[in-house]
Amino acid sequence: MIPSDSIGTPQGLEGERRFDAPTLTWPEDVLGFARLLSNYAETGLAMHLRKGFAFRARFPMRTLVLAHPRHLYRVLRSHALNYPKDRDYEFLRPLLGDGIFVSDGDLWTRQRRLLAPEFRPNAVQRFLPGMVENVGSLFAEWDRAPGAARDVSDDMMRLTLWIVGSALFDSSFRAEAEKIGHALELCLTQGTLQMMSMGLLRPWMPTPGNRAAQAAQRDLDDIVRQVIARRRATGDGSDMLSRLLTAKDPDTGTGMSDAQALDEVKSLILAGHETTSLTLSWALYLLSRHPDVEARLVDETRRVLGGRAPTAEDLPKLEYTRMVLSETMRLYPPVPGVPRRAREADRFDGIEVAAGERIALSIYATHRHPEFWTDPDRFAPSRIDAVTPYSYLPFLLGRRACLGEHFAVLEGILALAMIVDRYRLERVDTDAIATRPISTLRLARPLRMRVHPRGTVSTFQHFGPTGI
User: Fold this and answer.
1) What is each CA distance from 368 to 42, 172, 286, 326, 438, in whole angstroms?
2) Sheet strand arrangement including 338-341
C-alpha cells in the first residue's frame, strides 16, 4: 500500500479530475530532448502548453512530466514517501558528496535535525547585522565609480557569498569569492549536462567539460578544507561551522568527520548564496523593465528606511519589497525543476505510474500555469498573496522544503530594499535576457547596469553593526 500522510487536501485541489497524460510522438520526443539539453525550463513550458500539464516522454528514458499543482502536492506532500529523490541527483555527488542537498533516508534525517535549529525564523534574525555590513561593503565599491557600467549579476553573486561566509562560517570569503563562484558554476553546468543526458555523459569520461569541472571541484575543496582547518584549530564555538564540528550524533555519539564537514559546508555555501544571488539579479532586471513597479518600491523604501540601515523592526513594513521578490521567484524560480522516482506503482487522476518510473516536476511551468495565473508572463507583484496551494513553490514544499528559506527571504528583502533605497540602476542595453537553467535558473548573459546614487539622504548611516 502506498503511504500517505494524514493531512487533508489543500483548498482548491479537492475533487477528482482526469488528465490524459499523452505520450510524445517519437519525432516530438527526439526533437524535444535536443531542446531540453539547451534549455529544459523553457522547452518544458512549451511542451506543457501544447500537450497539457501532464505528459510522458520516452527518449532517452521513460519519464512522466508533471506541472499541475494537484500532482506536485501528491508527489511532494501527500505521497512523498513513495516519491524519493531520483538518482539524477547523483550528478551533484562529485561536488557535494553526502551533503544534505544530495543525501536521503536516515542520513538526510540526521543532517536535517542537526541543521534545522540554525535556520528557524527567530534564529536567522541574528544574521541581520552581518548582512547589512556586507551590503555596505558592496556599496563602498559602487561609490568609488558612480555611473560606471558593472556586471551587477556578478556583484550579487559576490555579495551573497560574503553574506553566507560571514553568517554561517565567520569567514567572508572576500578573497575567494570569485574562485568559489566560478567553481560552482562550472560544476553545476557540467553536472546538469550529465543529468540531462540521462546516462549518456558520465562523470568519468575524459571530456573537456568534465576535466574543467573536476579541476574546479578541487579548487573549491581546497578553499573549504582551509576554512575547516582554521576553525578546528581555533576551537571558536560562536558560528555555525563550529557547532557542526562539535555536534554529536544522538544515536551513535560520534562527531562529524572532516569528509562529512567538507560535504556539508559545500552544500551550505551552494544553497546559501546561489538562489538569493539569482533572485536579486532577476529582480533588478525586472525592475529595469517595469518603471512603475520600481517607483512604487522606491516610495516604500524611502518611507520605511529613508537612507538609514534597516533594523529587524523595519522588515514587516517592507511589504511591497517582499511582494517584488516573491513575484520574481514566480517568474524565475531558483530551482526550475526537480526529479523524483516512484517506489511503488501509483494511480491518480487517470494517470498510471509504474514502479520505478522517473518523474519530472516542472516548477517553472507550474509558476506560469494559465489556470492559476492570469496573464502568467506579466510581472505583477501585488497578486502574489492570493495563490492556490502548490501553484507557487520557489523553495519547494513538503518534507524536502528548502531548509534555508527564512535566511534567503531575510537576505533578499534586506538587500533589495537597501539597493533600491540608495541607487538607481540603469541597463547598459535594453535587450531581453533569456534564461539559462542548470540546476538553478541563471541569466543567459551578464546583467550589465550603471549604478547611479539617488542623492544624498541626511539620515543615511554607515552600514555596519552599529547601524542596527
Assistant:
1) 11, 37, 16, 14, 19
2) 54-57, 63-66, 358-361, 338-341
Q: Give the per-residue pLDDT at 458.
A: 35
424 beta partners: 452
Q: Can you list the domains of the chain with their CATH numbers?
A: 1-82+336-388 (3.30.43.20), 83-335+394-467 (1.10.630.10)
3-state secondary structure of 290: coil
Give Cβ neighbours of residue 233 (< 8 Å, ≥ 6 apart): none
CA distance 453 to 142: 9
Q: How far from 414 is each of 79, 157, 180, 370, 374, CA to CA, in Å?
A: 36, 15, 23, 31, 29
DSSP assignment of 186-227, as one string? Answer: HHHHHHHHHHHTTTSS-TTS--HHHHHHHHHHHHHHHHHHHH
CB 305 within 8 A of CB 311: no
**Pick from 79-83, 101-105, 373-377: least confident:** 101-105
SS3 content of the chain, % helix, strand, coil (to 5): 55, 10, 35
In tens, the pLDDT along 49-59 reads 999 999 999 98
In the chain the first and final C-alpha atoms are separated, in Å, by: 54
Task: Work out the angle at residue 233's Cα, subtended by the Cα atoms of residues 117 and 128, and round it to the nearest 5 degrees.
Answer: 35
Nearest to 282 by CA among 68, 437, 407: 437
Residue 265 has pLDDT above 90, yes or no: no
| Residue 314 neighbours by CB distance under 10 Å | 18
Whole-angstrom Cα distance, residue 407 to residue 128?
9
The CA–CA distances, whole Å, from 174 to 159, 235, 430 equal 9, 22, 31
Distance CA 220, CA 185 (A): 11
Quick check: 382 and 323 in contact, CB under 8 A?
yes
C-alpha triplet 31, 33, 37: angle, nearest 5°: 120
CB 160 within 8 A of CB 416: no
- Global pTM reads 0.90
